């Protein structure tokens, strides 16, 4: 009888707890089934991915399911591309290059910004003929676009864009997912255009990736856009790309606008062949007032140089980099003071050549965070962060602890977590399949013990909704010093697992 009374009391407590009144947002087992992390546990997660490979029967691209172990808290794109390139063949599919080995380049091999991925292959890919490289590029694009959050893919070789003509001057632009038939038709269309003279005045269209400065001088973010180019010379391409940048972003939040960017050019862009190396660079000459205009727009010169160099080298074939001149001064170095990584360390440009790989610290992507508003609910905001950290649960929690930023897409919000918390208060984080387990220090409980019910809910679900915004994450368990306390401040039952709560998201 005592056991039944105890059970009845427990049920009454559970059913009268505000958290459990919303059965759609919590799962209430009292004992967690997961080990409590101390430090970050990076147990690989088994996942089936779809690799785009040539069929063993007709050579057309087909999707081949492949079971892989993927590291949590990292975007799977690079691991998936490595798997694709190393595929040795089977009864149903051939390797991408039976005669040799395709590899990723050193440095920034796979970049992710927004829904755009850029893959940099090593120089051995130059041994492929034009059509074979195009097939490899399509295979990589079809593979990465199966991951769900990637729509566009750029393919570089040794840090440079490769043309689809024999002279390597006609751009293919960003790839999208295609069927086998579409891939063949697109190759025929591109190759027909590429057969024209490189200096042809014939207009053409392609998808280009534009890198826009983001708010607060943090860096740049990518946006793919269909553009029409006035001619096929690389100088004409540069003009069109610069004009597209000055028009501003269409989908990215927090992007300042430089209306006069093309009018600040003192002369048309010039393609220069360097003596000795034979490398080609695009020279940009700006008026003396260029720096002044950047200051007015709130854009650090380093970020603007990153925007220009990344945009031009990603699309225009065969250029090793960009040189910029402001008045009579050549830009030979920048200091990325506004970026998350590398702040205060000068980036030097040998011979004034700004090479694409040097701007990797500037490349950002937006993550989803939830902060408290004045209505007792949460508001979703987008924050630009270095692309390498966008899937890192610990990093997102640290961003929550910092509270709202000027670079966030929504202003006027408040931090959900108590003041004074920092990364050291995240004792450990782990992911097991679709569940994340977070172990906080006792400082979280100390800071939350006197919160009113509304703020307690904002705190807990600010964490839960932020972490479940990560792809594949559905459940979160919260621990403090290795234990699940009954509650933080008395109104929300903490033990067990939490699901995403869409009802607490306001406007």
Radius of gyration over all CA atoms, rounded: 26 Å
Give the oligomeric state of the chains in this entry, treating copies of one chain as homo and distinct chains as hetero: single chain
Number of domains as seen in the coordinates: 3
Largest sheet: 6 strands, mixed
Helix fraction bin: 10-25%
Low-confidence residue ranges: 1-24
**Morphology:** globular
Helix run count: 11
What does this structure look like?
With 507 residues, the chain is an alpha+beta fold. The chain contains 11 helices and 22 strands. The model is unreliable at 1-24 (pLDDT under 50). The strands form 6 sheets. It has a 6-stranded mixed sheet, with helices on one face. The chain is 25% helix and 25% strand. The protein has 3 domains: 14-32 and 373-381 and 388-504, no CATH class; 44-195, no CATH class; 199-368, no CATH class. Strand 5 (110-113) and strand 6 (116-121) form a beta hairpin. It has helices at residues 2-15, 18-21, 77-86, 130-144, 180-194, 234-246, 290-297, 301-315, 393-402, 442-448, 453-467; strands at 26-27, 39-41, 45-54, 61-70, 110-113, 116-121, 152-157, 160-161, 204-213, 220-229, 270-273, 280-286, 321-326, 329-330, 333-334, 347-348, 363-372, 378-386, 426-432, 435-440, 475-480, 497-499.
């Amino acid at each position: 009888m005592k056991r039944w009374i105890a059970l009845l009391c427990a049920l009454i407590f559970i059913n009268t707890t505000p958290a459990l009144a919303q059965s759609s947002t919590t799962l209430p087992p009292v004992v967690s089934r997961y080990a409590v992390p101390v430090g970050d546990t990076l147990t690989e997660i088994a996942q089936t991915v779809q690799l785009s490979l040539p069929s063993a029967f007709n050579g057309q691209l087909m999707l081949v399911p492949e079971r892989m172990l993927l590291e949590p808290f990292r975007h799977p794109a690079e691991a998936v591309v490595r798997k694709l390139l190393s595929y040795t063949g089977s009864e149903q599919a051939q390797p991408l290059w039976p005669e040799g080995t395709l590899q990723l380049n050193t440095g920034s091999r796979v970049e992710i910004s927004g829904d755009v991925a850029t893959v940099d292959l090593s120089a051995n890919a130059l041994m492929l003929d034009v059509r074979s490289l195009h097939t490899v590029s399509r295979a990589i694009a079809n593979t990465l676009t199966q991951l769900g959050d990637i729509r566009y893919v750029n393919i570089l070789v040794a840090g440079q864009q490769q043309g689809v003509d024999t002279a390597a001057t006609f751009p293919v632009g960003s790839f999208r997912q295609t069927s086998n038939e579409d891939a063949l038709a697109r190759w025929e269309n591109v190759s027909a255009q590429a057969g024209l003279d490189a200096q042809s005045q014939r207009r053409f269209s392609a998808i280009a990736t534009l890198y826009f400065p983001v708010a607060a001088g943090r860096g740049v973010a990518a946006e793919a856009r269909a553009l029409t180019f006035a001619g096929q010379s690389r100088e004409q391409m540069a003009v069109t790309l610069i004009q597209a940048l000055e028009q501003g972003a269409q989908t990215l939040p927090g992007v300042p606008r430089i209306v006069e960017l093309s009018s600040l050019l003192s002369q048309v862009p010039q393609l220069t062949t360097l003596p000795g190396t034979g490398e080609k660079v695009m020279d940009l000459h700006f008026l003396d007032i260029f720096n002044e205009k950047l200051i007015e727009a709130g854009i650090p010169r380093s970020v603007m140089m990153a925007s220009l160099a990344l945009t031009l080298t990603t699309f225009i074939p065969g250029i090793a980099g960009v040189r910029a001149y402001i008045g009579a001064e050549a830009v030979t170095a920048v200091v990325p003071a506004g970026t998350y990584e590398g702040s205060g360390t000068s980036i030097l440009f040998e011979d004034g050549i700004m090479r694409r790989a040097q701007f990797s610290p500037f490349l950002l992507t937006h993550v989803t965070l939830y902060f408290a508003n004045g209505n007792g609910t949460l508001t979703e905001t987008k924050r630009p962060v270095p692309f390498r950290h966008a899937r890192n649960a610990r990093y997102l929690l640290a961003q929550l602890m910092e509270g709202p930023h000027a670079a966030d897409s929504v202003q006027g919000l408040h931090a959900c977590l108590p003041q004074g918390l920092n990364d050291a208060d995240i004792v450990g984080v782990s992911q097991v399949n679709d569940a994340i387990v977070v172990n906080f220090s006792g400082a979280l409980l100390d800071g939350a013990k006197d919160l009113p019910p509304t703020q307690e809910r904002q705190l807990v679900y600010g964490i839960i909704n932020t972490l479940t915004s990560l792809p594949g994450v559905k459940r979160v368990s919260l621990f403090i010093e290795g234990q699940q306390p009954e509650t933080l401040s008395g109104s929300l039952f903490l033990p067990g697992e939490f699901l995403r709560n869409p009802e607490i998201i306001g406007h």
